[in-house]
Write a structure and sequence with these properties.
Strand content: 15-25%
Low-confidence stretches: 1-22, 25-37
Structural class: alpha/beta
Distance between the termini: 55 Å
Strand order of the largest sheet: 1-2-4-3-7-8-11-12
CATH architecture: 3-Layer(aba) Sandwich
Amino acid sequence: MKTKLLILILLGFFILPACQDDFETPDTDVLVPEKAVVVQSGTIVTTTIHSKALEGNLVGDPADRPVYVYLPKSYYADPDKRFPVIYSLHGMPAWGKMMMEPVPFEIFKQVANLQVSVDYPGVELEDWLNDLVDNKGMKEAIIVFPDARTLFGVSSYTNSEVLGKCEDYICNDLVKFIDSNYRTIAHFNWRAITGHCAGAYGALKLAMKHPDVFRYAAGLSPAHFPRETLMYMAAMMPVEDDMWEPMGAPAGPIPYDPMQPYKFVNNSVYFLMQAWLPNPSNPPYLADLPFTFVDGTPVMDEELMKKIDQQNLMALSTKYRNGLKKLKTVYFDCGMSDDLMMYPPNQLFDKHLSEMHVKHQFERFEGTHIDHLYQRTEKALVMLSNDFPEYE
């Protein structure tokens, strides 16, 4: 595993300057015209959104973002028909094409030392989605795949002084954009949100905070970062730095590119803290860390850890309990062998929701963090699409 990781790191440093180019320039298709088009199946179109919520962020991330939109076959065949919408938030790999490309998953597997590869279906995502509609029981819906990555990785879908208003980007700018440009049913009763890892955290958090926007939520391996996990990550940061140092990499995070190796632990700590502990007065990373190193050993700052705890799903579910109870679907799963330490906190989250009498479903499965990901996504999409009420 270390040999594979070093190979990836070496490859990354030959082309590391490419990471400085930030985000790819998205291909933009003309929005689907409001007239019948003869097509045989659903398709994914690409467009661009300008988000005012992301303007002026301090890390220089673009306010113009690619958006990938799946339009089912009937969207073209019946120009008067309107459709429910499912928003799918990415985790790592952190980009809007998360479900469309296998290479970033393999890089993620290597840099995070994951046990298994993702079950990539081997066909284009639109073909996979069409098969769900034609053969797997999914009802037709528009599915939106936004891009929410930041300089070092995922935004955590949190409003931040440093990263911009990433929560508002999804809940306000993106939803209004989709409702304005596509034939949606523009009402929370026909709007769902899902995602994996950080995207699952975002989906559950945004739904409980904004039940007037989303009424259905499904999270796959939701991300949790309790004290024990952060202390483990802190201990691993210098180890990771030592592995990268022979290739000339500085300590700390490096710009994220889903197609290149990156520092998984260092990047994760800094993109989390830029969301949860932003500090514009603390260059160069504009964030505080909740720990310091004393003789090489990380020591937790308890006051900063309390601030982080306020952002975890346990605390948020208590604070937004009334919003949670308005949701018509609350579903999440986690592998019992999750190799990113997510299973124990998800067990506690399940227990916590039960104690609050929040109707929900938690599914345990034999597997790891990205094990059976497409199979699990299939289940979530089929479930959410069937939970929508009929619309006349």
